[in-house]
Structure formats: structure tokens, C-alpha cells
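It is worth pausing here to work through a concrete case rather than discussing structure prediction in the abstract. The textbook approach is simple: state the sequence, then state the predicted structure, then interpret. We follow exactly that order.
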Amino acid sequence: MTIDPTFGPHGARSGAASGPNPYLATIAALLLIIVVIFGSLWFLAARVAERAAYSDAANLAQTLSTFRSVYTTEVVAPLVDQGLSAIHDYHGKPGVLPLPATMTLLIGQQISGDNRQDTTVKLYSPYPFPWRVDEGGLRDDFAHAAWDALNNSGLDSYFRVEHQQDGSSLARFALADRMNDSCISCHNTHPDTPRRDWTAGQLRGVLEVSRPVGGLLKSARSEFQTSAIAIFIAIALIAGLLILYIRKNHLYQKKMASDFLQLRKRNNDIENISFALSHTLKTPVRGISGLADIIEEDLTNAPDQVLDNLASIKERTTYLWNRLDSLNEYLKADQSAAASSTVDFNEFINSLCKQNNVPSRFRIELPPESPKIMINPGFLGSVLSVLINNAVDHHDRERGTIRVLATDAGAEYRISVSDDGPGINAMFRERVFEIFETLDTSSFGNRGLGLTICRKIIEANGGQIWLESEPGAGTTVYFSVPKNR
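Step two, the predicted structure:
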């Protein structure tokens, strides 16, 4: 065997520049992840703050709208029916009530001042009463946009975040204030009313709540910063564990590569020694066999016991010679490489049976239609010769049937040899593939290496071999071979 030249003495590939440092690559990837996470959280904090500002402003606007409706129907209307008046300048005047709009603005300012720093509440329309002309009209672009959106599209609310020149942001929420039945008469008959044709459902004004985003953004970013720090710590721990794993895995791979090379060298040495030893032992075995022949020729009138002993010596030397031959075959089993060619399976099996002198008392069954397979004929012949001869040699009856089949299994060919012989007990099914193992101990003729050599040849070609058998039900040996080998 030869050592793969692409590996150096310590298991690393030689002749090429070393790859990127896995630790630096891991750290760079983790830093990129951290930057992406921090950037995403920073951007997300702004969206969360804007959403919180919208929710805050919408809740306050809805609360004030509900208050105004209840105040109008449950307080103002009954008291006006009893002779009291509702006016805007109610301070210091007995027997009067603040107008619903006035009371709503007052409540909104009080709530904002207590709980919402810099939150403002406005109520405006294109039709302000004279005492609210300075602050109740459409005074900026948002007011005009909100009025148009609520008046023309039928929406109940309008929202926008405005970015100021100083870098701050302001969330502005506008809620539609539509005319209801209880207010129509007052608005159409009041001496100072700017419009006298109001009908129910018309947009009479816009209730706006404005909420600065800065405070909420600061709070959101503070929370996200805490989360980001926790994520960073978690990532750092993961990175440390990952780097530790990579380092251990790298060292393990180096050790595995080194051990692999040492094992290959050791196996190569063992095979070389075994090959030389088998050749060395053949010389004295040949000498013993030849000497036994000479003695047998010289002892023409020797007693039967002597002749039997000489026959036993010759039988055992033949057995040893065959074992040494088998050992050489086994050592060279995975070293042959030949090109594949198209094989007519049935024709090939018939020729192989003739070459192996399969007795005519055994019937060979083949596929009804001969398959054409692309395979190395030498490889196929070596394996099938062993399997067919085993089916004959280990049969327990004078006559028998041997079935040889080949099927196309997609990426591989699957070939089987079946017999109707005695079968094999489950406890011995793996043993028959071991070197010098045989279930037939009745004679010295069985070398115990046939299936071992088959397994080595098949596995060297990327295939597998296995058998199925039950005592008294015969044996089927299967083997597979990839098509691309």
C-alpha cells in the first residue's frame, strides 16, 4: 500500500497554503452578528417608541372624547334644561357651566401636566367660535392634513410622527369630533356661532393629542440596551464554547489523521511481512511434499500404516500450501483494478460454471431475461466463483438447485446466489466472513478464506456483502456494487 501524498507526516495536507484561522473566522462572524443585533435593536427602539407614543396619545384622546360626550349628555344638558347656562368664560360667574369643549381642554391640560410631560391637547376646526379664533383654527400643515383626512375619507383618526429641526420627534394623533344630536341646536342657534347649518355626523372639529417621542425613545433604548448586553454576554459564552469545541475538534482531527497514517503504515508492514512469510513457508512445504513422494516411491512394499501416514503428510502439506495461496490472494484482493465492460449476465454465469466444473447434478437457475450490466468481469468472476463453489461444496444432498440473479437497484447492482442446502444457524452468519473460519471441519480441503476474500474485494469496490439463511431452508448470499466503480 502507498500513503496518500496529499498528507504530510502529521496528518495535515502538504503542498498547499494553510486555510483561514477558524478562531478568527468564528470571532469575525460573531462580531458581525453582534453589530447586526445592536443595529436592529437601535432601529427597533425608535419604532417601539413611536408606537408607544401613538398608543399613549390615542388612549388620552379617546378618554377625553368619552369624557366630553358624557359631560354633555349627563351634566350640561340636564342643567341647561333647569335654567343654567354653559359658557366659555365661566370663571367668577355664578349659575353657569363651562362649555363641553372648554371643560375637555381643561381636563386634558390637567391630565397632561400631572402624568405626561410635554404632552399637549388641542381642539380645532375651520369654524372656531370668536373667543377661540387665535388658537382654535387650522394653524399648521398637520391640522390641515388631519381635517382633510377626517372630513373627506370618513376616517375616525389620523396619526403622524414629525421630525423636528432639533432632532427630536413629535407624535401627533388627531381624533374626529363629529356633531351629535344633543349639540346641533346649540351650535346652530348660538348668537356667536360661525356656522348655522350643522347636521348630525358632520365633522365639527379635531381633538389632537401631541406626545414627544424622545422620552419614550430614551426609555426604549435603555431597555433594549439591557437586553443587548444580556444577548452579548450569551453570544460571548456561546463563542467561547464554540471556539473551545473548534479547537478540540481540530486537535482531534490532527490526532485522527496521525493515527490513521500510523495504522496504514502498520497494516502495510503486516501485509508485507505476511506476504514474505507465506512465500518463505512455501519452500519447506514444497520440500516436505516432495520428500513424501520420494519416500512413497522407494517404499514399494511398505506396510499399510506407513503408506497411510505418508498420505496424511501429503494431505496436510497440500492443505498448508492452499492456505498460503489463500493468504496471498487475500493480501492482494483489493489491489487489482480493471476497467468495467458490458456483461451479458446469463451468458457469463454459464461460462463461469463450465470453468469451475460445476457438477451436472446441480441445476443452475438464471433470470428469464438476461440482464446487461456494466461491471468489471474479473471482479464479478472472482466473487461468483467462490459463492457458486461454496453452494456446491457445502450442499448436504447429492442434487441441488443454485439460483443466481442480478437486479438493477438504482445507483448499484445487487447480485445474489441462493441454494437449497442445509442453511446456516444465525449465530454463525458473521463468522463465515472471518479469515480462516469455516463451518466444515470434516476435511483439510476447505481453506476458510473464500468469503473473506469476497468481502475484501467487494468492500474495496465500494460494495457490501451479506447473507440470509435459516437451518434447513438454504442460504442466499447478496452483494452490491456501485455502478460508478
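Step three, interpretation. The two ends are 20 Å apart (CA to CA). The longest strand covers residues 169-178.
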